[in-house]
Amino acid sequence: MENSLSVLIGYLNQNYQDVSEIKSKSSQMFSVLFSRDKEGREKFHIFYILSIKIKAYVKFSLKAYLCLKQFL
User: Where in the sequence is the domain holding 11, given as residue range(s)?
Assistant: First the structure.
């Protein structure tokens, strides 16, 4: 899973300019929650199941969602 997580973080860093914070820690499972910010832009939050270890804020797109689905 750590390798998959590294691939995902690399994808986000390469494809989105507004990733504000990514903290990588070893974990077996993580989940994704979607929300909107005050300006109405969609973003997703990546959380580990047991505790919050990663927060990635990016513009939502179908491509990003499909990328995330293969890691979940």
Answer: 2-69
